[in-house]
Amino acid sequence: MSACSKEDSPSSKILLGENGLFYDVLELIHTHYVDTVNVNKLVAGALNGALNSLDDFSNYYSAKDYKTLMEVLNGQFGGIGAEIKIIKEGVEIIAPLDDGPAFKAGLKQGDIITELDGKELKRLSPVEIIQAVHGAPGTTLTLTLLREGKPLKDIKITREMITDVPIKGQLDGRVAYIRLSVFNNQSAEHLKKTLDDLNKKLHETFGNAMTFQGVILDLRNNPGGTLDQAVLVTSLFLDKGSAIVNVTEKEPSSHRTFYAQGTDILKDIPIVVLINKGSASASEVLAGALRDHKRAILVGEKTYGKGSVQQIFDLGAKGAVKLTIAHFTTPDGHKIHGKGLEPDILVASEPTETPIKEPSSRDKDLKPVDHQKQRALDLIQGLSALNKW
Fold first, then answer.
1. How far is CA 329 from the centre of its chain?
2. Strand pairing of 112-116 and 140-147?
3. Of 21, 93, 247, 325, which is least packed with CB atoms within 10 Å of its CB?
């Protein structure tokens, strides 16, 4: 191990110099550890330990693991349909995707997977965990789960080919309801088309002179996506030049602010955004920008608080490092990462069983009521009655 140069940082000198701490610990391991030492595994563990001490999203990948990771992420594989975060206990569910295997199996935001098919995840590397989650569509996994610290009965889940989740829209009277469950490369384009289609349906039903009473954007359990799409989607609801998000990097000269590029396509129409603990990243960019510009009211629960940007640095034969390089703040400078966004109107996310009779049904079965959505509808109708926004 070579000595550090004068240009090295103080932490590098302490850890990596010939008389440094890391050097001393390695010497102790090689001299006294009872079993044969796998040097590559030892170094990878040390690097991951250092990176994980920074945050939950930074990792080291060996050259072999990085190649495997890229093959898995770029290939056609089945999965469980959930945004996940690797933590020391295993895997935390950030948000299950609508109608995906995890959603169908009843997994919720905050659930922690501790074992897959009997394998303890805390003993696996990040890439081994990703490999274990992915597999051929139609194959099954047995998940051992913790929910709020308590073990649940093991759940069997069938992998599916995960495709882009479409944007869903419907009319509730004259209110447009838009469910945006994930940000992908066509989110802004599809969202605009969905609004156009609902507008045509509105005119067919109520006459060409009618406009929306309001729009509900449902971002609950939306784990986010690319920053580019977050900016493009937000631009649909703000006028050109309005700040959308500040990206704060290490060097002050690298700080950037992204601005809306178009015109507000819903000018003077009230917007309510539904959020919860599974709303993260790009969802928080959108919700935060609309609130800061007093363009929307946030209803639901506090968001996840994932306001950071990761970049993968390819080190060639030495592997790769995924490192957090920036944080988001809202246009008014409110920090998102680790804090989340508080709703303007707090409404518990758990539905309750209330009798509702469907128009085409005579049965008296109980159906879950979406109280957050109902509160949003009530709010829009109240604003419409007062002719205020």
1. 16
2. antiparallel
3. 21
Domain made up of 168-386: CATH architecture: Alpha-Beta Complex (3.90)
361 included as an active-site residue: no
The class level of CATH for 75-161 reads mainly beta
Please state, in angstroms and rounded to a whole number, the distance separating the CA atoms of residues 308 and 305: 9
For tokens 């950037």, what's the residue?
256
Q: Of 108, 306, 322, 373, which one is the catalytic site residue?
A: 306
- 292 counts as catalytic: yes
Model pLDDT for residues 255-264, shown as the tens digit of each residue:
999 999 989 9
Could you report the per-residue pLDDT of 291-306, keeping only the tens digit for each?
A: 999 999 999 999 999 9
Our answer to whether residue 108 is catalytic in this structure is: no
Catalytic residue among 277, 292, 322, 349: 292
The pLDDT value given to residue 289? 98
Q: Which listed residue (62, 235, 281, 283) is catalytic?
A: 281
For the segment 146-158, the average pLDDT, to the nearest whole number, is: 92
pTM: 0.79
